[in-house]
Amino acid sequence: EVHLVESGGGLVQPGGSLRLSCAASGFTFSLHSMSWVRHSPGKGLERVLTINTSGETAAAADSVKGRFTISRDNAKNTLYLQMNSLKPEDAALYYCARISGSRSYDYWGQGTQVTVSS
Prior knowledge:
The protein has strands spanning 3-7, 10-12, 18-25, 34-40, 44-51, 57-59, 68-73, 78-83, 92-99, 105-108, 112-116.
């Protein structure tokens, strides 16, 4: 059974940093592209960053370019999101999601909440 479990969220001041982790199990992690997706009441669902099986990354959200970095450790079956220079508008529930062969998201984690406030 596929499981994706996010962790690392919390409350941070503007300008601060957080690193989110997503522990994957139940499938061959190295064979799937993965994304971080966030949801906030004001913006809805937004794809943040994607990483493919070769480690190449693509940012879907212009607002995070230069501040957020996605990475993966296939030996640990873990996906990461390093978030620097956080802004209040980055506050959201952050999900990791697996990309299926048809390039849609077929599995999601439960999410981890990020709050950016002074």
